[in-house]
Amino acid sequence: MKGSFTGAVYNKQGLFEIADNGSVLLDEIAEMPFSLQAKLLRVLENGIFRRIGGTTDIKVDVRVISATNKDLGEEIAAGRFREDLFYRLNVIPITVPPLRERKEDIPLLADHFLKKTTGTSKRISPEAMKLLMDYSWKGNVRELENIIERVVLFTEGEEIQPSNLPAEITGYAPEFTGARVDIDQIISYMEKKYLLTALN
């Protein structure tokens, strides 16, 4: 809202206004500050909110999808999450098991991240894939994506071998082989990733 705080020189629509008659995803909902949860509850119950510094109620019709990797029951018991907000959000709950409990998804996800990262014909050898399947993946899908991205940067050939995987996957620290690291290729990749992130 223009004039509501220093530097506010023009009006700007928020996410709920932009998502009117559509959907909005609230990721990691358990991390939302307790004071903000009451405001979200009001929007969910009445479809009404005010811009910062505003005096006029704005009516919206938004479908809210929320996600979290925490047990909201435990968060409620600890006083970090509002019970009334939980029941307002918990209309159609969908529980996604951790990656370690659905290892059949690992090859599909690994291949997806490989194509997303390289856009080329790089592939994962059966031996390397077995190691990926055997790993516990405490960081779930995001950890898998980061591992694939890291491995691609340091793999020169077209096929990713066990020796290309990090020590936490293989269970041992590989010996230094003296393989050349193409710094220009790494810099080019990081520049491309930064530009794509900025454009999105």
Summarize this structure as a short list of keywords or feature phrases.
mainly alpha, 200 residues, 44% helix
How does this model look, in words?
By secondary structure, the chain is mostly helical. The chain folds into 2 domains: 15-89, Rossmann fold (3-Layer(aba) Sandwich); 99-199, Helicase, Ruva Protein, domain 3 (Orthogonal Bundle). It is 44% helix and 9% strand. It contains 9 helices and 6 strands. It has helices at 15-18, 34-46, 72-77, 83-89, 106-118, 126-134, 140-153, 167-170, 183-199, and strands spanning 22-26, 48-49, 58-59, 62-66, 123-124, 159-160. A two-stranded parallel ribbon has the order 1-4. It has a two-stranded antiparallel sheet with strand order 2-3. Strand 2 and strand 3 (58-59) form a beta hairpin. Helix 5 (106-118) crosses helix 7. It starts with 14 loop residues before the first helix and ends with a helix. The model is unreliable at 172-179 (pLDDT under 50).
